[in-house]
Write a structure and sequence with these properties.
7 strands; 21% helix; globular
Length: 155
């Protein structure tokens, strides 16, 4: 994942990477385990009509720890207007996550227009009346490719 982020996602803009401080979590027996690891990635873009979450990815095994919520709060702080994203129809976990955070499905596709050819759903969250809580620590900002995809698997 680190190579994909560095070589593909970061060069285009609007990327935030969440790294876990593994040193505090690692068992010191394995020095390689002390290196920071990327556990979540967020890529954003803005159009005149809406803010877009182009990517929101949490590493498998790291879900349920608040990483996605921290990145989503950051996205809502940074983006203007309604916030939109696509996720796959079959990704029920992501759909529940977004719906729990105020997003509503506004359109579905058969997947013919996305790289994975998987049916997807367009979500939108109207502008918030009040700003979101400050985003969490250890976020890095760079430049990343925009693909308008909020999930990376179709299972």
């Amino acid at each position: 994942m680190r190579a994909w982020v560095a070589e593909v996602l970061v060069p285009g803009g609007g990327v935030h990477v969440l790294e876990v401080d593994v040193e505090a979590e690692a068992e010191a027996e394995d020095p390689a385990s002390l290196a920071p690891r990327i556990d979540a990635v967020l890529a954003l873009s803005q159009t005149a009509e809406a803010g877009w979450i182009d990517q929101l990815y949490v590493r498998p095994g790291c879900t349920g720890r608040g990483l996605g919520e921290r990145l989503l709060r950051l996205a809502l702080e940074r983006l203007a207007g309604p916030v939109r994203l696509y996720t796959f129809q079959a990704n029920t976990g992501a759909r529940r996550f977004y719906e729990r955070h105020g997003f509503r499905a506004i359109a579905e596709t058969d997947g013919a227009c996305n790289e994975e050819r998987c049916p997807d759903v367009l979500y939108e969250r109207p502008p918030a009346a009040a700003p979101a809580a400050p985003a969490a620590d250890r976020l890095r900002t760079g430049r990343g490719r925009r693909t308008r995809r909020a999930s990376v698997s179709c299972t």
